[in-house]
Write a structure and sequence with these properties.
The protein is an alpha+beta fold and 463 residues long. The protein has eleven helices and twelve strands. It has two domains: 4-79 and 383-462, no CATH class; 87-132 and 167-380, no CATH class. Pfam families: RepSA (PF20199).
């Protein structure tokens, strides 16, 4: 059983359920199932069975049924990417994102990119939203406009100096159209590259390719901004070196020019004027180096940064991670004033722009795009990474059960499976158990990370 000292503060219902679980005959198996999900907070419950037979003889090589499981169910991880919903599954998602981004920076033949990718020009670009009104901030060593030097964790950071004059409607409409701004940016970027190379767009496409991987992040003020790895390749993709004219300086200049050209028009509606949405003036473009020299960001830093924000969403601003149907819910959920006003603006604007689905995305402060995207040839895909992990675990399971390899030409197997959804989530006691298992797993990861430099030093000393 896990640490009994932590049981002292449990509410009576949870404590009773923990004791029920501990005394049940299937407790060890319940622990094993929860551990296999990594301590998932909201596992999917399945019922069903699977039978593996020798295709030639019909002999049953292995069979499994959830009838033998405690409660008659099998728990599998929910797979939610949001750390606010499931830290365990979000950790896996962040790891996949890290490897996806890293493969497009350092190369990984197993993931579809050669190591020569390091020689391609690539930058880390950050595109931000414009101003919708002055907010509390930390401008270097100077005090904020309000006259205060705010601490890094000050709650007022990102909130308007004057909420009554802040353009809340403009802010949520910008978030709502941010994905379209990005789409136009990628179109104009290719045009600006061709212009600087003194080529037609067709000729530029025939000689080069632009690949990218990006992630969306919320600023404290609730505005979305994008971090993107942008890379020059040859026309065939990462295996192909870019042409001589495809330089880092040309790519950087083209990014600045493309961002300045982007405009998305929003027609007038009701009491709202016509708007032309643009990127903000704070555009940051930095070269990515294979090895840090104290000035430029490194591949490791970029991959880690993108992975970190791939599991976060609008809840980092103080809002909630689920849909909100009306303004009354803002009070019940105790949403802070600034994000509450942004959500209220979404709800008010929805009847004026019904096709933008602002009510559905009010909890996201209007943003309705994907948080993590990439171009087709940037590197591998999240689906391929998940399939590789699933294949590895399946191979482990076959080895443990003594089943033949699917590629074995001498024995052909046939697996028949039937699964049904039986609900999701934990009982109160299972939730407490999952939290403790998740804490232990995280502690082991942290310990391993701390010991890694020491192990590397020992290997170097004994080499």
């Amino acid at each position: 059983m896990t640490d009994t000292a932590t049981m002292a503060g449990l509410d009576p219902a949870t404590l009773a359920d923990v004791l029920r679980l501990a005394g049940s005959p299937g407790f060890d198996r319940i622990q094993d199932q929860i551990r296999r999900t990594g301590g998932c907070t909201d596992p999917i419950r399945l019922t069903g069975s699977t039978v593996t037979r020798d295709a030639a003889t019909g002999q049953v090589l292995h069979s499994y049924s959830t009838d033998t499981e405690p409660g008659g169910v099998l728990r599998v991880a929910c797979g939610n990417r949001r750390a606010s919903r499931c830290p365990s599954c979000a950790w896996t998602y962040a790891g996949d994102t890290y490897h996806l981004i890293r493969a497009g920076l350092v190369g990984d033949p197993a993931k579809g990119t050669p190591e020569t990718i390091r020689d391609h020009p690539r930058v880390f670009a950050t595109l931000t939203a414009p101003s919708f009104g002055p907010v509390h901030n930390r401008p270097g060593n100077r005090p904020c406009r309000c006259g205060t030097r705010h601490a890094e964790d000050a709650l007022e950071l990102g909130t308007p100096l004057d909420p009554d004059t802040y353009d809340y409607a403009g802010a949520v409409l910008w978030n709502n159209h941010a994905s379209e701004l990005w789409r136009y940016f990628t179109i104009y970027l290719r045009r600006e590259i061709a212009k600087r190379a003194e080529l037609t767009q067709k000729a530029a496409r025939e000689q080069s390719r632009v690949s990218f991987g990006k992630v969306a992040e919320y600023q404290k003020r609730g505005a979305v901004h994008f971090h993107a790895v942008i890379r020059f390749d040859g026309p065939a993709g990462p295996d192909d070196p870019p042409p001589a004219w495809a330089t880092l300086d040309l790519l950087t200049d083209a990014i600045h020019a493309a961002a300045a050209r982007v405009e998305v028009d929003v027609p007038p509606a009701g009491d709202q004027p016509a708007r032309t949405l643009r990127w903000g003036t704070q555009l940051d473009v930095r070269p990515i180096r294979a090895f840090g020299d104290g000035e430029d960001i490194t591949e490791q830093a970029v991959a880690s940064y993108v992975a970190k924000y791939a599991t976060k969403a609008a809840e980092t601003t103080g809002t909630v991670d689920r849909r909100i149907g009306n303004k009354e819910a803002l009070v019940l959920l105790d949403v802070p004033e600034h994000p509450a006003r942004l959500i209220a603006a979404c709800l008010d604007l929805h009847p004026l722009y019904p096709d933008r689905k602002l009510r559905d995305w009010a909890h996201m402060l209007g943003f309705r795009g994907h948080f993590s995207t990439k171009s087709r040839r940037y590197s591998t895909t999240l689906g391929e990474l998940r399939q590789t992990r699933a294949d590895y675990r399946a191979a482990q399971q076959r080895a443990a059960l003594g089943l033949p390899d699917p590629d074995d030409e001498e024995v052909t197997t046939l697996t028949l499976a039937h699964w049904s959804y039986a609900g999701h989530g934990h009982t109160p006691g299972e939730s407490w158990l999952a939290a403790n298992i998740r804490r232990d797993i995280q502690h082991n990861r942290d310990t391993a990370r701390e010991e890694l430099p020491t192990l590397l030093d020992l290997e170097g000393a004994t080499a």
